[in-house]
Write a structure and sequence with these properties.
Layout lengths: L6 H9 L8 E8 L5 E8 H10 L3 E4 L4 E4 L8 E8 L6 E7 L32
Parallel strand pairs: 1-6
Antiparallel strand pairs: 1-2, 3-4, 5-6
Length: 130
């Protein structure tokens, strides 16, 4: 299904977002089919606009200081399924169809095999268990 967005609607949506002091907003990329978190990258206003209007995910590279559309060089493309802002309007969740690896290392997710040790919290319930 193709959705056409008016320039006014795009600008209204962008105006609702809160970008940091460098003009960036973090974007969590999630696999639309599995729900797996694939990666986190940064977008500026123009990258969000391109992502909203093209159907492909565009990021702002902080190190190269340029736009990069996921998959243009690797072939591991991300196709937009939805974009949501969080309750503080300072983080995006972009659900995608991911073709190939999401991580530059070749892993499906940037978080694969990268767990840190952590104490597991004990769940305390107000209700007695049956």
């Amino acid at each position: 299904m193709t959705v056409e967005l008016s320039p006014e609607r795009v600008e209204e949506s962008l105006d609702q977002l809160i970008f940091n002091g460098k003009g960036l907003i973090p974007a969590i990329i999630q696999d639309d089919e599995s729900g797996d978190v694939l990666m986190l990258a940064w977008m500026d206003r123009e990258a969000v606009r391109r992502t909203m209007t093209s159907g492909r995910v565009t990021f702002w590279s902080r190190s190269r200081q340029e736009y990069w559309r996921k998959g243009d060089t690797s072939g591991h493309r991300q196709y937009v399924r939805s974009i949501a802002r969080d309750c503080d309007e300072d983080t995006l969740l972009v659900r995608v169809i991911q073709l190939g690896a999401a991580c530059h290392t070749g892993s499906r997710s940037c978080f694969t095999d990268r767990e840190l040790p952590a104490v597991h919290g004990v769940v305390e319930r107000d209700e007695p268990e049956a």
